[in-house]
C-alpha cells in the first residue's frame, strides 16, 4: 500500500472521528455527566473547529511530503490554529523550499515556520531522545504553576523544543523557562499566539457558564420532579 493512500485513509478516519466528537458534544465536558467530549476540548483554547482544522492540516501536509520525498526525507507537520511548523530532515536546500511552498498551499494554513534541517536523516537514537524530551516537557508544564499546559503543543527536534499555543505573554515566559531547565534541551523556540489576560478571563467565564447550563439541563432531565422525597441531582462542585 502506498504512503499516499495510507495517509489519505488516516486523514479520512481522523476527520470523521473529530467531526463526530464535535457534533456529539461541542460543549464543555461535565464531570459525572452522561456525555462528554475529549479533554482537549475542555482545556484547549482553540475552538473545536480549529482543532479539527489543525488535524486536517497535519494529515494533508504529511500526505504532500510523502508524495514529494518518499523515504528520502523525514518531515513532521505540527499545526496550532493554522500556524504550521515543519521539522525534520530533507536532502537539499531546494527540497526545504519545496516543502515550505507545498505546505503553504494546504487549506487553512495561516503561516509556515520552516525549521527543516538540510542533511541526512537524523539517527533513531537522537529521535528517541527527542521523544523523551517532549514527554518530559509536557509533564513539566503540567506541574508548573500558572501555565495552561493543555493548550500548549510540544515538538522536539535534535534537542530544540518548539512550543505552540494560545497563551498570555507571562504564561509563555513561564512555560519556556520551565522547559529550558530540562536536561538535554539545547534551545526553546516560542511560537505562541499571544492573547491578553482579559480575553482569557472572558473565555473562561463563558466556558464556565456554558458548563453550568449543560449541567443544569442534564440534572433536570435525569431527575424529573415526580417524587419530592427521592434523591436530588446536585451540580458538580
From TrEMBL:
Keyword Secreted among record annotations: no
Keyword Signal included in the entry's annotation: yes
Signal peptide: 1-24
Biased composition (Polar residues): 206-230
Start and end residues of each stretch annotated as Disordered: 202-237
InterPro entries cross-referenced by the UniProt entry: BON_dom, Lipoprotein_DolP, Transpt-assoc_nodulatn_dom_bac
Top-rank taxon: Bacteria
Domain annotation BON: ranges: 53-120, 129-196
Keywords: Signal
Name of this chain's protein: BON domain-containing protein
Species: Allopusillimonas soli
